């Protein structure tokens, strides 16, 4: 084997190893990536059941139900579609009906969203930018001031 051929084999093997490492890294990132969906997005393009994702919208008026064991059920809406949500744990102090919310969890086969974390808006004027964008795409705004709520950085 000539020196040139040996060098080309080493370079080729190095590129092959680099490509395999890049493919493994991208696969790992894909598994840990959290996608954001509005209720309308979930109804139009449902992700695979069991995949971790975030949903955002407004807690529908009259939908909040608590049981005696610490579980809460409510519906998240973007005024075009609605997603039922269940959560077991302590809700944020600012969580209430008619307010913006982002929930992280998994969608079941039955279309029920099981939240592992629930985030409420920070003050009376704040709405996460993902929720504001989803409501704007749905063509629905419920601004209190006329321009709509200021957008935040996400959560």
UniProtKB/TrEMBL annotation:
InterPro entries: CcmE, CcmE-like_sf, NA-bd_OB-fold. Heme binds at residues 122, 126. Keywords: Cell membrane, Cytochrome c-type biogenesis, Heme, Iron, Membrane, Metal-binding, Signal-anchor, Transmembrane, Transmembrane helix. Residues 1-7 are cytoplasmic. It comes from the Bacteria. It is found in: Cell membrane; Membrane. Signal peptide: none annotated. Residues 29-155 are extracellular. Its main location: membrane. It is a single-pass type II membrane protein. Heme chaperone required for the biogenesis of c-type cytochromes. Transiently binds heme delivered by CcmC and transfers the heme to apo-cytochromes in a process facilitated by CcmF and CcmH. Belongs to the CcmE/CycJ family. HAMAP family: CcmE. This is Cytochrome c-type biogenesis protein CcmE. The gene is ccmE.
